[in-house]
Amino acid sequence: MSRPETLFLRPDRLREQRVAFLLATALPAIGALAAPVATAAAGHLGWPEATFLPMLVVSGVGVELGYHRLLAHRAFETVPAVRLLFAAAGATAVQGPPLYWVANHRLHHAHSDGPGDPHTPHGHPRGRWAGLWHAHLGWIFDASRPNPGHWARDLLADRALMRVNRLHLLWAALSVVLPALLGAATEGASGALRGALWGGLLRIFVAQQGTYAINSLCHVIGTRPYRSNDLSTNVGWLALPSFGGSLHNNHHAFPSTATNDLDPGQLDPSGWVVRGLAAVGLAWDLRRPSEEQRRRRLRVPGGGGDDDT
User: How confident is the prediction along the chain (309 residues), in pLDDT tens digits per residue?
Assistant: First the structure.
């Protein structure tokens, strides 16, 4: 018997999840505002502030390369230890456990920009701006959830991955505690606070907004060099903070590609990482469209067809 695509939460469970999601988005936003204030009070930049970038790389690559390309699309193969590390790294971005994230994303691809898409900005009854807000953040408070039994049966069958999945809050907490400990070791109580803010909450805020902007902006503004069955776009200036995820039209045209930088000048940090892993034998079977496949999907004259918008 087939399983439903989506499930609807009981009212009490929905209230609990909405409170949890509100805290997961509001606390990083507050931390983002507090981080520069704490640094200004200290009067200098130091090791606590320096934790921001490496922790952002862990979260950003964990989500875009781990959750997205590896777990959701199986765009490459890797050893079990790397697979589990990517799943834990993705959890540090506080966008939900891998099972939930992957199920949502596969549901999105199945109905992209149409009925059933959990976070399309298009077709909202209250207009374009309401649709943009819904796609960026509002959708996470909806009562419906993707059914993992329908969308992520492969993950459910992976016992080791499910153990990492159950501990997703631990990985998120550690990603705040570790920068705080480094800050405390270098500058005492002030350093602990600044480490928790810069390497923790501000970093989570930036990682979250980078992903959420793909859902919203990358279906509204930007370029569409390739034909796809939706309104996905490439937004070049967002490529670095989204770790290559904002090359979104490239991705929707070729969902299983391990690297999104299909054309000259495009930046794909997650693609750089997976190529590095491949170079040392920790990743293989990297999927990428051939030149002929790309040519057939190009929108330019002679590139394979009419605009499907």
Answer: 567 999 998 999 999 999 999 999 999 999 999 999 999 999 999 999 999 999 999 999 999 999 999 999 999 999 999 999 999 999 999 999 999 999 999 999 999 999 999 999 999 999 999 999 999 999 999 999 999 999 999 999 999 999 999 999 999 999 999 999 999 999 999 999 999 999 999 999 999 999 999 999 999 999 999 999 999 999 999 999 999 999 999 999 999 999 999 999 999 999 999 999 999 999 999 999 999 999 999 986 433 333 333
Of 204, 155, 153, nearest to 176 (Cα)?
204
- Tell me the three state secondary structure of residue 306: coil
In order, the DSSP letters of 126-148 are T-HHHHHHHHHTGGGGSSEEE-H
219 DSSP assignment = G
User: Cβ-count burial of 6 within 10 angstroms (0-12 exposed, 13-18 middle, 19+ buried)?
Assistant: middle
> What is the Cα–Cα distance from 108 to 43, expressed in whole angstroms?
46
Q: For residue 199, give the nearest of 10, 28, 74 by alpha carbon.
A: 28
Q: How many residues does the chain have?
A: 309
For residues 169 and 97, what is the distance between their CA atoms, to the nearest angstrom?
8
